[in-house]
Amino acid sequence: MRVLVIGSGGREAAIAWACRRHDHDVRVAAELPSPIDADLVIVGPEAALVAGVSDQCMDAGVPCFGPSASLARLESSKGFTRTLAKTLGLPSPAFHLSSSAEEAIAWWRELGRPVVVKLDGLAAGKGVIVPDGAEATEAAIRELVEQGPIVLEERLTGPECSLMALCDGTVARPLPIAQDHKRIGEGDTGPNTGGMGAYAPAPIPYDPDELTATFIQPVLDHLADVGAPYIGVLYAGLMLTADGPKLLEYNCRFGDPEAQAVLPLLTDDLAELALACCNGALGERHVQSAGASCTVVAAAPGYPATPITGGAITFGADCDDALLFRAGTDGQSVTGGRVLAVTGLGDDLATARDRAYERLGDVSFDGMQVRRDIGWRSIGARLTSYAAAGVDIDEGTRAVDQMKEAVERTHGPAVLRGVGSFGGVFSLAAIKAMDDPLLVASTDGVGTKVELAARLGQYRGVGMDIVNHCIDDVLVQGARPLFFLDYIASSKLDADQVAEVVTGMAEACEVAGCALLGGETAEMPGVYAPGAFDIAGTLVGVVDRANLLPQGELQVGDVLLGVASNGPHTNGYSLLRKIFDWLPMDSTPPGFDAPLGTTLLRPHRNYLPVLDKVLQAGSVKALAHITGGGLPENLPRVLPTGIDANIELGSWPVPPLFALVREVAVGMPTDELYRTLNMGIGMVVVCGPEQVEMVQGMIDEPTWRIGELVAADDHADDDAESRHGRKVHLR
Ligand code: AMP
Ligand code: GLY
């Protein structure tokens, strides 16, 4: 088919591209030639239609896709459109036609709401003012009324979309819904332009066929009834208000830049479709499309007010995934306001958008104006709930329901408010009996052990870990736990998993007579890696000042008694996970009494029941909880200046897990190993040499004499190359 496209902008370039794609012989011309040497004419701009191009074709017997001058009034006269829409009962804003400023102002005052002021006639996008405030509204009315009759419209709010339908006089078929970006500035700010970008299909909560039935078909039916069938594109500019879609305007042609976005999506032949429209045969044809597109306009400096032309353009290389449509350029330099548009294509909008911007990165001219936000509304438009953004409040509620019982089991009479209240409330009445009660508080986290727990799907133990870790931290100052508060964060909240963790916490609290007073569960997609979670907690305990540890003076000759750990507790997991990366977690290495995964996940011990008796007897001078930093870093926390500790390696049985680590990590110095892992000792009791037997007797499990306190000696042989100030000597 010989197709003649009338016009000279980016839209016409896109129409031509869509026809050439199906091997038609396409010519683009600014004006209708004589004679009209074409089998089909497709008209781009409204001005050509208003000037009667379609009527001229009709006279010459050439099929023309585009309405007659008389029907182009749908676009050229806003008053005509508003009156027609009212007659047909189409959802529209309240409006008023006027030629007098005073009368228009009176109508607006009566309406009592913000309005938009529009010139009745064509004004190339410049005849619309959206004023803010009374002063600006009056000024806008006075300004536009000078230029001709005006239309005042109730100012609607909501996202806009462009519904373009191919019409054959009786049948209308919608193209994918597009969204234009009318303002010059990012975030939809600044003056209106012809359009700085568009994308399609726009995610809107309405069916394009239903929108067509509401906004296009009644007009088509009406015009057919009055003997003036509408052939061409009927474009309804819609605003999607809280009260549903409303009509902003009709255009009698493809939108620009909507055409550049929508036409490349058509899989059907545009020329054939347009010809079918001219022949009243659209009903027999499909209008099919696929994929997503994003069109970004590059505008001249000074656009839209006073575009500066003449600058040289670099176009960059052609590519398959993006199309470049020229508009205000002669192929070398800037000749108009909107200079060109690039359309990226893809299976989804994100891909299409990336491709558009990538291709546009190749294009440059001085002062090039490009909005970087084309399509930005689509992300918000797709979300229907917080859950869709990855945060599921219902799942949080489900987790709370599941954990509630276990948590409430930890609540004695001291708990006045717990789960569900803004803050936990705990009565201190019981500790009034103490002479000088001291609160001891500790906050800690489980560390990277949680990764292992998540991998193996075993969550209860890490809940116990955090509570017991905190209990031991206050226990070494002689304090007993009062209450605990937890924090669980994850990329994706899973109620069952959270309930498992909190149940573990509650069980550990119950054993220790500690109230689980409150907590927080946070769902943080994008902060935590997918599948990851994190656990932390705070524990508050109490001790009477007389029982605060350390007690008395630590002296040379005091004995260090080691109490067994249950495993690595909560430390060294980054190392352990690395060392055992390729060893299956369900394998059982020699000497182990359980599979590797189970061994690694054994919960932190709570030393309160173990040491309760001996603490009450008052025979302990100090306690050191062996956590991060191991024996070398934790013992010094209770040692006074001038006193060091000697640790006799081999004085306690190193459990199989630690022995295996020592065997495998052949290059790791002993000191480094003991700094990373507890190596089988989770708690160290310091007591006078004469108390050793009694203390060991009051602890109902094996303990080991692992070393003693010595005078600080800068010349100790194993100390020669070590850091200054080291207090623990591994021998
Ligand atoms: P128009 O040329 O009539 O589509 O108006 C240009 C732009 O002005 C529209 O795309 C809207 O952003 C805005 N506009 C027009 N009419 C209204 C209205 N009644 N309420 C709110 N905004 C409007
Ligand atoms: N992009 C809006 C229009 O073509 O009217």
Shape: elongated
- Number of separate strands: 32
Question: Could you list the spans in which at least 5 consecutive residues all have pLDDT below 50?
Answer: 719-724
Largest pleated sheet: 6 strands, antiparallel
Short synopsis of the structure:
This protein is α+β, with helices and mostly antiparallel strands and 731 residues long. 30% of the residues lie in helices and 25% in strands.
Protein architecture, described:
With 731 residues, the protein is an alpha+beta fold. It folds into 3 domains: 73-93 and 156-374, 2-Layer Sandwich (D-amino Acid Aminotransferase, Chain A, domain 1), CATH 3.30.470; 411-548, PurM-like, N-terminal domain (60s Ribosomal Protein L30, Chain: A), CATH 3.30.1330.10; 549-731, Phosphoribosyl-aminoimidazole Synthetase, Chain A, domain 2. The chain has 24 helices and 32 strands. The strands form 8 sheets. Strands 11, 14, 17, 18, 19 and 20 form a 6-stranded antiparallel sheet that branches. Strand 21 and strand 22 form a beta hairpin. Bound molecules: adenosine monophosphate and glycine (GLY). The site of glycine (GLY) has 6 residues, from loops.
